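Sequence in, structure out.
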Amino acid sequence: MELKEPKTQEEFEGYYDLRWRILRYPWNQPRGSEKDSLEDMSIHLILTEEDKILGAGRVHFNSNDEAQVRYMAVEENQQGKGIGGKILSGLEERAKQRGTNYIVLNSRDTAVPFYIKKGYRIIGEAPTMFGTIKHSKMRKDL
C-alpha cells in the first residue's frame, strides 16, 4: 500500500469518484457535491494498492493554528482494515509540518468512535447533513 498525494488527472478523478460514491451517492447527492471551494488550497491524500484507490482524505487550513480534515472516505469492502487511520495520520503529519496547533473535523456519528481512538474529542454538535446524518464537531491538539 502507498500513501501519496494524487498527482495525475486519473488519480484526481478516482479520488473525487471515491468521495462521491461513499459520501454523497447513498444520499442521492449529485456529482460535484463531493467538492467545495477549498479544493485548490488543500492537501489531498490517497491510499493505493496496485494503482487502485482504497481510501482518501483532505486537510485544509482555517488559520495558522487550525487545520480541518474533510472528506474522509474508504471503499466499503476495505473499511476496518486500518486504511482510514493511515490516511488520517498522513493528514495530521502534513498539518504539523505546516505548524498547525490543532485539527478540527465534523464527524458523522457512526465515525465518532474511530476518531476518539485516534485522539480526537467531541467539542460540540455540527450541522446535520442531508437532513439525516448527525455530526459531531471534534478536535485534536497536535
